[in-house]
């Protein structure tokens, strides 16, 4: 069998199982419709011969009644097969979508963060939209029209072997042109898609960067790029029409030649008396009826070819490795984290972001990570959260390799606030409940009070029920950070990580929040990356990083005495605070 067809069938077979019943019903009605069509064409011979050749005109009324009944049943079967096939294919596409979403959620962050995988995954979302119509059409057409073609050709051969063969002579030429020009059309179509994709990309980019565009004298540049892509898309669109038109007219000419051959040869045979007119009509009808399904089959095949890239990409994404989920249930830290010779690089081509880091993060203490920007503070946190795996070295929690813990439960130990917290296009309340779905409204409010978010939330048009991202509701960086902190107060996780979590707050708010966090001290393990001296001084332990290495660790006083880099940082902090 053809590779495309085989790959398509294998791919879809995986998702067909839950819809077996409707699929077989669809198949049944498809078969029925084709058999009825075959029956109709083979009935022409006796009907014509008896009524017209033998002159039994009293049976004439059978023709309209028979036709009516026949087409009625064919119509009904076609309708039912379309209905059941649609149920099957829509169900399959939805299943593919759900499987993909599930997969994406379970992909390791490390993979998703990679440019290439990230792109593939987002392309795949489009791909499902692209394969839906192909899947729906192809299955119907392949099955129904395929069966019809087989039955009709069977009938024609049975009636008159040589006549049928004569028509089929033109078939290879039709197939060859469709294939050859089809390939060219496909290529042009793909180029158009690429060009259109580039257009959309340029447009979104321009709109996203509109502020900069308006400020720089660079508008023409964007306009020219846009125009260039537009012209490219236009050229390909013209090509498509050319190839498509050519292929269509060649097929039409071939049909004409086929028809001429049959009629002349058939007519010759009838005149000679070696072919009865009924059989001739039967064959002619079968052949005429076969053209439409053949054309549909060819179109479905082209559709399959076009969608092949899409489903092989879906397959590729679905075969990516998932995050390992199973493992021990972790309990809140008793002793704390231990890092042993941990090195990490984001990519083989990049230098080490962390180099031979060995240290302890004691439980229920506050550890501050300090260092110039780019020194590896955030990277260290990525590793603790198991977003990335160390290139070498190990990380333990209470003496157990962190990789041995059940991933979800392990991450549940943490509450993390990042510099740019992400909020979903949901109400404020729902955004907060993500952290703790079982929380009562009162709990949410008191968490927001601790995070100094309550007041600004009340000022929003619908308070806690304001949906973010709608009606022009957009929160400032500081407000986002306060909501992220409220999530922490709501959950009170055993480990709290703050990565420049208060960087966009004013000093007063920050102090208020810090004193609220202070109440969690003693029971919570804190890991903070702070930009303010007041926070760092309070830490039980400071880890000083520089270019991926630990330069020193200890308390503020110890470091201030011994470390040049720390003294320098201290100086710059002091200048900031003043
Ligand atoms: N996703 C990433 N891919 C490649 N390199 C990265 C990535 N994130 C950070 N880096 C690099 O790793 C180093 C440490 O970065 P990071 O941990 O973010 O520093 P810090 O948080 O201390 O400012 C920097 O050189 C940075 O450019
Ligand atoms: Mg950082």
Structure, explained:
With 578 residues, the protein is an alpha/beta fold. It folds into three domains: 1-159 and 296-323, Up-down Bundle (ABC transporter transmembrane region fold), CATH 1.20.1560; 161-274; 336-577, P-loop containing nucleotide triphosphate hydrolases (Rossmann fold, 3-Layer(aba) Sandwich), CATH 3.40.50. 66% of the residues lie in helices and 10% in strands. The chain has helices at 3-16, 20-53, 62-106, 109-113, 115-159, 161-168, 171-208, 210-215, 219-272, 277-318, 377-384, 407-412, 428-433, 441-450, 454-459, 477-491, 507-518, 533-538, 556-562, 564-577; strands at 336-344, 354-362, 366-370, 392-397, 400-401, 414-417, 495-499, 525-529, 541-546, 549-554. The strands form two sheets. Strands 6-7-8-3-9-10 form a six-stranded mixed beta sheet, sandwiched between helices. Strand 4 (392-397) and strand 5 (400-401) form a beta hairpin. Helix 14 (441-450) packs across helix 16. The chain is elongated and about 120 Å long. 29% of the residues are buried. The mean pLDDT is 87. Bound molecules: adenosine-5'-diphosphate and magnesium ion (MG).
Class computed from helices, strands and strand pairing: alpha/beta
The gross shape turns out to be elongated
What's the story with the biggest beta sheet? 6 strands, mixed
Q: Low-confidence parts lasting 5 or more residues at pLDDT below 50?
A: none
- According to CATH, what is the topology of the largest domain? Rossmann fold
The count of strands amounts to: 10
Give me the side-by-side strand order of the main sheet: 6-7-8-3-9-10
The helix/strand series, from N terminus to C terminus, equals: HHHHHHHHHHEEEHEEHEHHHHEHEHEEHH
Q: How many helical stretches?
A: 20
The count of domains is 3
Q: What is the CATH class name of the largest domain?
A: Alpha Beta
Q: Could you state the CATH homologous superfamily of the largest domain?
A: P-loop containing nucleotide triphosphate hydrolases
How much helix, percentage-wise, in residues?
A: 55-70%
* Amino- and carboxy-terminal Cα gap: 78 Å
Ions, cofactors and other bound molecules = adenosine-5'-diphosphate, magnesium ion
Strand content: 5-15%
Average pLDDT level? 87
Radius of gyration: 36 Å
CATH architecture of the largest domain: 3-Layer(aba) Sandwich
